[in-house]
């Protein structure tokens, strides 16, 4: 059997986001963020995909699972002890912007929020676990959405700058791995979560979307420069949603179509954040759609100077495209579309399972950018069953992760510089796209159900013990 090798110091761990796990909704002066106003259940997806969302809470109609999350806010010690037991080297988490600046536009940071993350980072360091921190993970203050129009408003850049300065200054000795915007390119399909506004029914979506992106690129560069100045021994990356795009067949027209989709979705943001300039292909798109980006003097220089140090990316699935989809069945995965790939099986949520696609992604990204890569999300959302004896035999998750880890090892042999791997939802949490608890990713089961019942008790799944061995053997024992 082939022996897989990972470099010394490979960063094994797990990934989460504040809004999907913390709870503590009313505590520590936290303000309302976007995830707080998104209902749970099937309605969430249709809200995310339709225009005209009002960012209001309507308790008569909906429930809001993110308000309680899995109560990490109170149980972080217990959870971090479990991560340490698995041998995590790193833990990816996000800081909730609204714990630090509850409305986003205050002049001074909220001490209670800052103190909470001090406690979390200290607890991680107690076990030698390095935090990997996403600065903004679908958690923009709702006040900035309602009063300012989200990222389409230039003023938000100033508020974001205040926020990053506050957290860099406070945590400069505690956090050495940062990422700016989670899955920044997801704003192309879900502006509500990524860009902080909902397209209005009558408006053309492209102009505000790309204006908002420009502001995020400027904000990202400001954050990168500040990080390099304030924490010279830290690294700061971008974070993109990556799904390699395959042509359904070898018809050159379909191959070109797949390439265009690939560049538009996978590379547009990464090109700006890595190469420091807008890619040539987007100019044609801007021209054809009459998009004119308003820029201030110095923006392009700033973007050039503030390029990121590494690429963090999520990988769940590939995507298969064909120009004329009419005779083919659509694929459901992760809101990015495409048609069903006849060679792949899918998860219960329709996300196609494609470990080889991870090797392809790693090679494509490394060929294009030549900077270190970090797989900061990957995993299988599945229904788990607690047996009568309390055990949870999630062998399907182990199979999924094993094949993806092998694909990473192959890519390392291919010559890719891969820093680490944090599998998504290392502890069960609220699903981002569907607001469900039943879509579980964790090594650790949390007793919380879609109807909001449950004790929140934590249980180790079979995959917990498996991942512990993977880390202890540095990927040799799969
Ligand atoms: C990524 C997000 O899109 O995928 C996470 O960064 C999200 O926030 C994860 O939870 C899995 O998606 P979902 O919808 O199954 O939770």
What is the domain total for the residues?
Answer: 1
Query: How many alpha or pi helices?
Result: 15
Q: Cofactors and ligands present?
A: 6-O-phosphono-beta-D-glucopyranose
Query: What share of the residues does DSSP label as strand, in percent?
Result: 5-15%
Quote the distance from N terminus to C terminus.
11 Å
Name of the CATH class? Alpha Beta
* Fourth-level CATH superfamily: Glycosidases
**Low-pLDDT regions:** none
Order of helices and strands: EHHHEHHEHHEHHEEHHHEEHEHEEEH
Overall 3D shape: globular
What proportion of the residues is helical, as a percent range?
25-40%
Task: Kindly name the structural category.
Answer: alpha/beta
Any idea of the CATH topology?
A: TIM Barrel
Q: What is the name of the CATH architecture? A: Alpha-Beta Barrel
Which key phrases capture this entry?
478 residues, alpha/beta, TIM Barrel, 8-stranded parallel barrel, 12 strands, 12% strand, globular, binds 6-O-phosphono-beta-D-glucopyranose
